[in-house]
């Protein structure tokens, strides 16, 4: 079977082992929720995912996956072998990391049906759903035609810069010829991410001679230069479509209230779901920085040293898209309608950014339930029809992977 030919989802859902897997997903709903609780209570800060990765290795083995490995970057991969050895595999990914730094308190609270814990939805839900898929397919005796590769990835959030999926699909990787890539991320069951929001992230460092706030008055001040850069960046404009954003997320520098700092800095996040617009935004942001530094230096004491600016790239996320008429997208839309929801095609920044940029058909979908407060200490999850999201994922991946009968 090629990905250009799909079995209709309603008919696929009635194939005996698929129907049994669907029933098992619903039957195991409480176990999936318990997995989710357990995962969320294991700290996985940026560049500190090893404890959660170790737990996932054991859980994947217990669920019945084979060929479980941890690669050099820290990704955990496992397989369900397909019947067609010559067919390219389908990758199902969920990221291990959370946005929360090391030391964040991970104490689960319950308010009725609501579970409150940083990371409980993003992405403990995606990882728990991955385990549910493996467990249900193995117990149902379901064999796909294409091999399924399950990947618990590192570095999806923030400064992780998608390092896990970049390594997974690096030059020379046997997974570069994957037939499809599905990221399980969060909870939403209507949205299908078909466009990746690309980003360019920079740390802009302003340096000067420094000095005493009184004795060296008039010396150029890097902190003042940061303010000037922020003003100029705030004036950057692009056309309203395609969508874009410019955000200054962090600023810092200096040693004392009565000292002119030798260094101050800011961190800049530029985003667009269109590669050309992102390039234009990047160019205009660099021009704004140069203009601000020139203005500050023009106003300095003539005998003093000038402000020097250094712009350091700290993150690159590629933009891309999977066409709306691609078989993978059609499968996801059909599976969404099957569970009684209306599909919505959207843009976001997920692990799917990288395969989209490489030309691999890719989407990101939620794994069921309801959530809120994402990326805050007040993140919450409610298991409202949660199993439906996992059924949707099952039908989507099997529509492109096929089922051996």
How far apart are the termini? 13 Å
Strand-residue proportion: 15-25%
The CATH architecture of the largest domain? 3-Layer(aba) Sandwich
**Assigned CATH class of the largest domain:** Alpha Beta
Output the CATH topology of the largest domain.
Aminopeptidase
The biggest beta sheet is recorded as: 9 strands, mixed
Radius of gyration: 24 Å
Verbal overview:
By secondary structure, the protein is α+β, with helices and mostly antiparallel strands. The chain has 2 domains: 9-197 and 319-401, Zn peptidases (Aminopeptidase, 3-Layer(aba) Sandwich); 198-317, Alpha-Beta Plaits, CATH 3.30.70.360. The protein has 11 helices and 19 strands. The chain has helices spanning 9-12, 16-27, 29-40, 50-63, 124-139, 163-168, 222-234, 275-298, 327-338, 353-358, 386-401; strands at 66-70, 76-80, 90-95, 109-111, 114-116, 148-153, 180-184, 191-196, 198-207, 211-212, 244-253, 259-260, 263-272, 308-317, 320-321, 344-348, 362-365, 370-372, 380-382. Strands 1, 2, 3, 6, 7, 8, 15, 16 and 17 form a 9-stranded mixed sheet that branches. A 4-stranded antiparallel sheet has the order 4-5-19-18, with no helix packed on it. A hairpin with a 7-residue loop joins β18 and β19 (380-382). It is elongated and about 85 Å long. The two termini are 13 Å apart. The mean pLDDT is 95.
